[in-house]
Design goal:
By secondary structure, this protein is α/β, with parallel strands linked by helices. It contains eight helices and twelve strands.
Amino acid sequence: MTTYAIGDLQGCHREFLGLLERLDFAPTRDRLWLAGDLVNRGPGSLDCLREVIALGSSARVVLGNHDLHLLAVARGGAATKRSDTLAPILEAPDREALLDWLQQQPLMVRASGREPCEPNDTLMCHAGLLPQWSAAKARALAGEVEARLAGDAGRFLEQMYGNRPDRWRDDLDGIERARFIVNVFTRMRFIDPDGHLEFSAKEGLDSAPEGFAPWFSYPREDDPHILFGHWAALAGRTPGSRVRAEALDTGCVWGGSLTALDLSTGKRYQQPSRDPSRARP
């Protein structure tokens, strides 16, 4: 039995199937951790969503910003963007079942410790883990947002977007608290030493604004093994990291590759994009 963590699919269905074949993946024997952004930008978002759902309990998924965007469009009144490839999902006969499943997925998962192929200090979230939060605190805060998605999700999705507040305080409440939690787990890249989030810079490490650095360049009081996607410009690397962080998004949808990490050995497997000429806009 092997557990593989895979970076952002973003609708790259053919590459996903090719990677599973390369891994000799068997859902009756192996497990997948998927780092969010199952959908959008690529041509096979509907197929990716159906494929992952069909894996049942052999797949664990966290929500990414594109997954939440799909939910916001479908159930929160948000507008689609020109670059979206969500129409096949929104027009599918099984649309509601697909959305119901997606809405039930967490922002963060942790290894149970019961399986040797899943080290018990390993966790996964889409964008990363704020250094000021312990792993236990992060799991509890993720649960707050997951409860909102399980409740009055439409109202929450309508209010979810925004860049403020940009710094954590324990006394944050209401939608501001939930919005900050969502932004950490699904949008974070650069922060300052006080934990302020910065959203204008989205490229490589040299695009960091003055006074800001990648979230993984700051030390933590605990030392979990953190798996994350979201940041294709890192190309799977975390130079200067002061924590045990593994970048999994290697930009398949932008002509790069789809990456899988064997959690027990640390070995990486890559499936090249079927469209290597596609460049990031």
